[in-house]
Amino acid sequence: MALPSSASAARLRLITVPALLLLLSSAALLVFLILPSLSPSSSATSAHLCACSPPSTHTTTTVTTTTTTASPAPVTTSPADVAWLKAQLASNSLLAGGAAASHDAWHRLRKGINPRTREQQLFDINRHHGISHYPDEEASNHTALPCPGELLVEEHHSNYGEPWAGGRDVFEFLANASTLTPTDQVLEIGCGTLRVGLHFIRYLEAGRFHCLERDELSLMAALRYELPAQGLLYKRPMIVRGEDMDFSKFGDTVMYDLIYASAVFLHIPDKLVWIGLERLAGKLRPQRGRIFVSHNIKFCSRLGGDVCTQRLAKLGLEYVGKHTHDSLLFNHYEIWFEFRRPKV
């Protein structure tokens, strides 16, 4: 077979290349038009891409929940809290100094308020047998925890001299100074009407607050009014009536992380204070546990520094130091003395 001449080959290349390009273009267009009919449906493709299960008659929904543990409420009022409150007072045009110029001026501030003294409130409660004015024969049939009128008007808030609000100051200081946690065990010697104890009870886990109190009226106020009124019955504090530093009802195995006496040892003979310390020394958690006593420690200073140190050492205790704590609400501060039990 004869080979084509060079001129004929050139013409063949000129004809073949465009034709080949046209052929390839036509084939690509044909594939583009035919391919969708050969592919799965768009909905099926979407289902594949989103990795969803194929449709079925029964649909099972799985809900994933995340359990978060709320942070404990802060113990101390922060500078930011104080700044926020001051801003609220200013925005509401309330008194900058916190009090009016006179008693009459103070009462002129009220609008729509009909104030009554505790004496007037008590008179009304006794006269009307309560807010709903029950008839005499039904006066005691509608209250789960009948409470004396004197407690209902909160006369006991004035029984201990200092403002009731001071209890929050004491709690903040002691909780911070002892690095308290909700699982710690606390004992108050002389909790009175729970001016301080309420804050500990609210902060601690159930059953973690113990108290020894000798005054009957204070115990009535604590148990019959304060705990129900504050919604703290579920915290089950152990409040025991007793004196002479008898802690036997709290059990033999309990170990305390914090023991405190707020203005109590001032009214107890030195001999009895030392008896109490002797009984409690072995119940204080070594190293971490703390004993705090407010105002003064004359039971110790009256012996002389060296003698007191030696006596404490015999009990397994040591003096840590003195603290001054300022009040948040009123012109007042307290002195506290700290003791601990060295490592056994």
Structure description:
The chain contains twelve helices and seven strands. Helix 7 (166-177) crosses helix 8. Residues 6-15 and 39-61 have low confidence and may be disordered. Helix content is 39%, strand content 11%. It is globular, with a radius of gyration of 40 Å. It has 344 residues and is an alpha/beta fold. It has a domain at 157-340: 3-Layer(aba) Sandwich (Rossmann fold). The longest helix has 33 residues, at 6-38. A seven-stranded mixed beta sheet has the order 3-2-1-4-5-7-6. It has helices spanning 6-38, 42-49, 79-91, 103-108, 118-128, 149-152, 166-177, 197-203, 216-229, 270-281, 298-301, 305-315; strands at 186-189, 209-213, 238-241, 258-261, 290-294, 318-326, 333-340.
Beta-strand fraction estimate: 5-15%
Topology as a string of helices (H) and strands (E): HHHHHHHEHEHEEHEHHEE
How are the strands ordered across the major sheet? 3-2-1-4-5-7-6
The CATH fourth-level homologous superfamily of the domain at 157-340: Vaccinia Virus protein VP39
Report mean pLDDT, rounded to a whole number: 81
What is the CATH class designation of the domain at 157-340? Answer: Alpha Beta
Give the CA-based shape.
globular
Radius of gyration: 40 Å
Class per helix and strand makeup: alpha/beta
The CATH architecture classification of the domain at 157-340 is: 3-Layer(aba) Sandwich
Helix content: 25-40%
Instruction: Summarize the main sheet.
Output: 7 strands, mixed
